[in-house]
Amino acid sequence: MTDRSRRLLDEHRDLQKAIELINLGARLQVIESEIPDISRPKLIRLYKDLQGQSPPKGLLPFSTEWFLTWQPNIQASLFYGIYQQLQGDNSNHPRLDLLICSYRLYREQVQHCPEAVVLGITRVWTLLRFFESKQLDMAVCTRCDGRFIVHAHSPVKQFVCGICHPPSRAGKRLKKSNKYVELTS
Ligand SMILES: [Zn+2]
Questions:
Q1: With contact defined as beta carbons under 8 Å apart, do 159 and 146 qualify?
Q2: Which of 31, 62, 87, 130 could cross-link to 136 by cystine, CB 3.0-4.6 Å?
Q3: What are 76-128's pLDDT values in tens digits?
Q4: CA–CA separation, 150 vs 161, rounded Å?
């Protein structure tokens, strides 16, 4: 293959990946960070073509705390479990492909739950960054053996997850949805 055709092929792959991310609802900053070879003006044009509007401005959601609140914690733990599983089975796959694939699988799992999909693709992207910078970690629930997201470096000796010990307000909804428990435990 000539250099030129290799370059064209790379550009094509990058564009396909950017389109996939935009269609999944990713913020521009996520795409710029993951696919740095596409210029910003080109990316903005692509975004407008696909979404029919300019990309939203402003900061990305950036808080580890959000992932520790009840419902986001359960779904984010489910997502991260899927991601780790895929990563273990496909360690030579690009991280971005694993991210997209785990996100699709996560959405399939939760789309029929009454609580619906809580995590956007931008959120799960920030989640991976928190794990990579070792701000978040997983802990095993002492009651159900499920693995859940916790703050890194915070000692959790008798950790009990949000499913085994939901906040009182969430109890009713959780009982109605046994499937939810099965999927996440
Ligand atoms: Zn539990």
A1: no
A2: 130
A3: 999 999 999 999 988 888 999 999 999 999 999 998 877 788 999 999 999 99
A4: 10
Q: Separation of 61 CA from ligand 1 center, angstroms?
A: 27
- The owner of tokens 């307000």 is 169
Residue 75 Cα, ligand 1 centroid: separation in angstroms?
Answer: 13
C-alpha–C-alpha distance, residues 182 and 90, integer Å = 25
Six-digit token pair at 8? 């064209």
CA of 143 to the centre of ligand 1 (A): 5
The Å distance, Cα 178 to ligand 1 centre, comes to: 14
Summarize the confidence of residues 139-147 as an average pLDDT.
Answer: 96
Contact by Cβ (8 Å): 96, 169 = no
Concatenated DSSP letters of the chain: --HHHHHHHHHHHHHHHHHHHHHTT--HHHHHHH-TTS-HHHHHHHHHHHHSSPPP-SPPP--TGGGGSHHHHHHHHHHHHHHHHHHHH-TTS-HHHHHHHHHHHHHHHHTTSTT-----HHHHHHHHHHHHTTSEEEEE-TTT--EEEEETT---SS---TTTS--GGGHHHHHH-HHHHHHH-
Which residues have CB atoms below 5 A from the ion given as ligand 1? 141, 143-144, 146, 161, 164
